[in-house]
Request: fold
Amino acid sequence: MGLRLIFKTILVVLVVHIAPCFAYGQEDCAAIFKKAIDQVRSMRLLSKNNGFEMRCRIKITPESGALVEEHMEVIALKNKYRCITSKYSLYQDATTMVVIQHDEKTVFVTRPLPDQLRKDQFTEMVKLQDSLQQHLILGNCTKEFGTVHAGEGCIKITFVPDKTIDGLGLRAITYWVELERYEVKKIAIDYTPNSGYGVKKYELIVDKMNAQSTTIPFKNEALAQGMLGDKLRSEFKSYALIDKRN
Reply:
């Protein structure tokens, strides 16, 4: 993953057994979806004053080749932020951001992403969501049990594109919403064949989310996660150092 994709994945504030489905009225579904989206906005995931913790899975089904699955853990508290996947580890505090890219064997050090820029990115993401949502038509809405997490019920809400965005290669966007706290537990994007993206389906499954977390993202400074003094830590001695702080 490149850095741009890392941040998009951050911003952005499976299937076991399907029990019999119960249809909901469209007005009920629209109200449930609005509450869920409002819940996401209210969390303000990128606010440094809010502790936040999330564990999720990303599944990508390509048009050719095998399913790609990635696990991600995000923890933020005050001015510290950590994002971990199998391919990279990102650490940020008030003075430094460190990205350890394991597949490319690099340790990238730079200044932290400014708070205002992070807020602006979140705002732009919300605007994009609102703009896209204007061109989506509510399809079906059903209650399912155990399709996202065993023993948990969700409302499955599917949107399909209208004719305005018919050529974008989007077939459907589906949300699974847990009703007790109106949390989005899963998002699936289905693409049309030969859409140009090379992807059949993109899925984001939230395994844990806590918008009032007190977990400390990491000990000491962000720089110390990749370096000791002016040298790389011993476990990264074969990595290349890219220092862009100046």
About this structure: The radius of gyration is 20 Å. Residues 1-24 have pLDDT under 50 and may be disordered. The first helix runs from residue 3 to 10.
